[in-house]
Amino acid sequence: MRELGVILLAAGLGKRMKSSLPKVLHRLGGKPLLFYPLRTARELNPQRVVIVVGSGADAVRRACGDEEITWVLQERQLGTGHAVRCTKEIFQGFSGDLLILSGDVPSVSESSLLRLLRQHREHNAALTLLTASLEQPLGYGRILRNHRDELIGIVEERDAGEPEKKIKEVNAGIYLVSPSFLFSALEGLNNHNQQGEYYLPDIVGVALKSGQTVRTVQVEDAREILGINTREELAIMEKALQERINRKWMEAGVTLKDPQTTYIEEEVSLGRDTVIGPNTHLMGHTVIGERCLIDGNAYVTDARLGDGVHLRFSVVLTDCRIEEGAIVGPFAHLRPGTSLGRGVHIGNFVETKQAIIGEGSKANHLTYLGDVTVGRETNIGAGTITCNYDGFQKYRTTIGDRVQVGSDSTLVAPVRLGDDVYVATATTVRHDVPAGTLVYNQRNERVREGWTEQKRKKMMKA
Fold first, then answer.
1. Which residue from 18, 50, 428, 447 has the fewest beta carbons nearer than 10 Å?
2. Are residues 92 and 149 located together in one domain of the fold?
3. What domain count does the chain have?
4. Are residues 263 and 215 in the same domain?
5. What is the pTM of this model?
6. Do the beta carbons of residue 53 and residue 87 sit within 8 Å?
7. Catalytic-residue membership of 365
8. Which one from 192, 281, 365, 431 is the annotated catalytic residue?
9. CA-CA distance, 50 to 47, in Å (whole number)?
10. Higher-confidence residue: 314 or 462?
């Protein structure tokens, strides 16, 4: 089987986005636009992937991470034809087929590209292009056919007459082409147009005039070929993507109380009979177990929730793990490194960070637990703080099983509290506390009778 190379065009300025960010880095479903065609191209197992970059090249490279990609810089943006021509040296001597994709067309499917590949190779074509039928084809090049339904050319929107503008079949801008024909055709292109650019679709005319075999494949779902050129189009595509994801999970047995305000990224996993309230964002590699209840207004990233977890209203979770039956919120913030055991309760206005909290323990009110390990069946009173930072380093607090920490207590790390310790209300703990003991600070409570009346008289004279 012939080899396959991929040329992914990502050098466009995206002027209509009105952004300093390269267009292909604008996010769709939490990922850069470029991620989607690159992922689809990878599914075809190509031998070589080349991405053509221009403005913001370094940012685009960083966004792709450690992918095995060959990068080509188009120093001057002189059109799509010129961008492809910049890859000529890379594909010198390459005898396979070249698939040309656009970095701002995120929805093209593997199945459509496989059909394109099959059609191209079955007919030993020099060029095969993807087409689509659009009800509103404004802005797209129209496919021209003769009475035998054979392709005879492409007319761009700006050059089309009224009869041609009524044609609904359009050029998708996705091509499969032999390298020898491609680079020969590109050398013959001219830029005699208002923009002074070399247009890739012009190779279709070159192929037809020289008697090359040219084939077309029409996608079944025209939405596959829609590109992103404006922020409005990005929003429309985001909504369509979210509707598809939400529909998938509802069909799998998840209840979404308000799908229109529920945002779930592609790599999230949800268990059956989980109920998700409105204004919920589930992102990254979040995994939600079965029979969970998320009241709403939750913002969850890279979290793992066991079965039967209850997220009460308005919580923020990032890179944390929650075991079965735990309850979090309302208004709680679980920061990276948090791990909650079975049946743990984390209540309103509680913040955790690098906190390991054992089974059945509770911190229900107004508490900061940072860099701490808490044992089983321990209760942390309201207003408790683990003082983990001295301005230079972070230190850890360790709290044993069945510990009772009174309200308004301060635990100054590094410090260790043994099992069954009682910390009296408003205690500052600076040293390790042995198991089974009471720790408190000696304070004398004083009462001054008549003080309020004396104060009032003094203020009235002032």
1. 447
2. yes
3. 2
4. no
5. 0.87
6. no
7. yes
8. 365
9. 10
10. 314
